[in-house]
Amino acid sequence: MRLSTEPIMFACEFLGKNVMYDDAIANIKSQTNTELEHVGKALLAATENPDTNDFDVLITLIVACLRNGEFMPEEFRHFVADVLEGNRQRPTKRGADKYKNWERDYKLCRAVQEVAKTYDLPHYSNNEFSEKTTAATIVAEASGLKIDVVINAYKNFNHYKPGVK
To answer: How far is residue 118 CA from its own chain's centroid?
Structure first.
C-alpha cells in the first residue's frame, strides 16, 4: 500500500515534539486551582522517592522547563542536580519495567489521534488485511514501528484527551 507523504511528514513532525509536556500545559490550563495544587504536590513528592515512571516524568518536565527558560521549584533543581552529579539514578526493579515504553506509547497514541483528526481518517482497522489507510498505518510508517505496536499504544492510551477534564 502506498501512503501519501503529507500525512507521514505530519506524523514525523508530531512525533518529534515534546507531546507529553505540551499536553500537560494544555491540561493545566483547563484545571482548577485545587486540582493544580494536587498535581504540584504530587510532583514535588515524587522528587523524594520516585518510581521509574515518576523519574521519567520529572526528567521530561525539568528538561522542558530548562529549554524554555521557565521557573522551576527548588525541589526540581535539587533533583536534577543530583541526577547530573550521579548521586541519583533512574530506579530499577526486578523483572520487566512496566513503564519502559510508556512515553513512546503515549506519543504514538497522541500521533494517531492527531493524524486521524487532521486527515479525517479512521484511527485503525481491526482487519489486518485491510487496504484502508488509517492513522495508525501512517504513524507506523512515520515511526518505523510495526502497526501492531502502534495500535496497542493507541488502545492503551486512547482514554486520555488532552486539555479535557
So the answer is: 19
- In what helix (H) or strand (E) does residue 17 lie, and over which residues does it extend? none
Half-sphere exposure in the Cβ direction for 124 (13 Å, CA): 23
CA distance 123 to 138: 10
pTM for the whole structure: 0.63
Question: Nearest to residue 133, comparing CAs of 144, 123, 142?
Answer: 123
Per-residue pLDDT of 13-39, as tens digits, reads: 999 888 877 777 777 666 666 766 777
The three-state secondary structure class of 84 is: helix
Residues 6+ apart with CB under 8 A from 56: 90, 99, 102, 103
